[in-house]
């Protein structure tokens, strides 16, 4: 029996490498407690030699290590430190340590096949001085049988969970401490350390991009920006282990885990479930069977912990969910990160910097031939790091995107791509810069097939895509515009130059020379949508400005579509044609009323509409075309608290909601969470009749003092994307 057991334990042989790949932080090797140098004499008694009795890690949140390393917020009992910065431990021996005769050293190990040249086995001898950014240890204090050690980790050290052994040299062999998981040490990236690849020099930015555990997702569309809070929860219980598991799942070699470029690249693939059974399964078709609708999630913790325990993709996500979870992963490991929203984001299927919208004879968009789409918004992440693999100047913020859109080197992933390289059109630099460049810079081209089969360009819109790129402000909940970090001023000389550079580096751009295009210049058409609350009627206004001395008539066609936020049409709910008389040198406005009964039955979960207006000037045959997305106002949840809010004492939270629709809401799910205050709670309600108010009271015990945020969401088939939030101050007990 024992023989077969031994055989099973051996790793399978592989002709290419002496050792199997070492890509799991979870697995361990067995370390001998007595490593003999040969035959041991009969009288040898290990107890005669220096022996370790105990090791103190100073790992409590209020103790020196977690305070100095900014890791006191992690809800984790083990020692967590950041690389390239010294930390303290204490070793108690069975007798006073004598440096003349006693020799001991520390060993840090990670993974199953530790090797010194791979950085997975680290022996540390005690020296007189610590060199900054290199592994080393020195004695800072001796008292009775104890010594205090200051340990420095390497600034390029692998990020993960290490095992610690203390080894003592005897004449006949090495004596080691036995395996003790209480001394395990997590080592993270260090944005506070100048030599670290992720060093960020502004303390306020470090507090926001590394230590803030809640953030804001901007959604809606360019004309109607909406925002909601998202709980990143990177310090919550088990989240750090779940994030390390993601790297195991992606099979990233342990020796590559000190490199933020590699970590971002593999993480952008493993965040989505396409081709590797990653964390989140995407769904954009408004059917969310056997899963949670993307709009119901209030944060990342539930998703990461469910994946960590089930090892199966969590259903379902859309772009802000992928980006929210990715942000948690990056901040948890210590890589500065922020969530970005790009309004009017191009999804260009053939990466030619041009979104082709084909019109039929009536001027309607032909959905069968139009393959490209403009997302109302798209969320991705930026991670902060140096790029030693690129020329100087391309470090700093890098785009990483976990939403599965296109494959990159055979997998659904995107980035890291230097924001600076995208701005200047240097899209030859890895990874996936051409794709991101197209997302923020494509032109929309309206094409019509003429009778003889040629394509006639009716209109080119160069400013619609990537109009606004935003992220949360540092230290506040407002919006910070960062469009100019991605692109130069529209129409400027620099912008043209960046475009020419991008084309030179292989971004395909079709020229318009081979097709005839003379725009109608003496008539302008504008288009306004009235702000509207879900369930009410609203109007759209089309305005023509005739700048010529000719009178024209325009045959105008308005098409109203219900769309996914990705710009893909579900159906057309409104068709309206009219003839407009355009007097010389004058403006004329035409209103079209949209009734709630026309759209309510088909509405999708983000309450998005997309209007196309095309007008043919009958006298010249020229076509004017424009499009606009709009989002309905969705009512919010109200959150209230009662009584004193003190850490460790019970408090009460109430969530209220009034049904605004002219129908009963059925099978309603409420969620409530707040990092440091309460873990996610859920409640189901069978029905909420029209105009009636639901009230849900929850009792909880907050565990962390300070400014905290409560986030709630409501979800049912008829109504999604209903959110509420409340900032609360938890007092110290």
Share of helical residues = 10-25%
The CATH topology name of the largest domain reads Coagulation Factor XIII, Chain A, domain 2
CATH superfamily of the largest domain, called what?
Transglutaminase-like
Coarse structural class: mainly beta
Largest sheet: 7 strands, mixed
| Rg over C-alpha atoms, rounded to the nearest angstrom | 31 Å
Number of helices: 12
Query: What's the average pLDDT?
Result: 89
Tell me, what's the shape? Answer: elongated
Query: How many domains would you count in the coordinates?
Result: 4
Distance from first to last alpha carbon: 59 Å
- The total strand number stands at 40
User: What would CATH call the class of the largest domain?
Assistant: Alpha Beta
* CATH architectural designation of the largest domain: Alpha-Beta Complex
Strand content: 35-45%
**Unreliable segments (pLDDT under 50, ≥5 consecutive)?**
1-10
Could you characterize the architecture of this molecule?
With 733 residues, this protein is mostly beta strands. It has four domains: 34-188, Immunoglobulins (Immunoglobulin-like), CATH 2.60.40.10; 203-505, Coagulation Factor XIII, Chain A, domain 2 (Alpha-Beta Complex), CATH 3.90.260.10; 523-631, Sandwich (Immunoglobulin-like), CATH 2.60.40; 638-730, Immunoglobulins (Immunoglobulin-like). The protein contains twelve helices and 40 strands. It is elongated. The active site is at residues 319, 378, 401. Tetramer of two A chains (F13A1) and two B (F13B) chains.
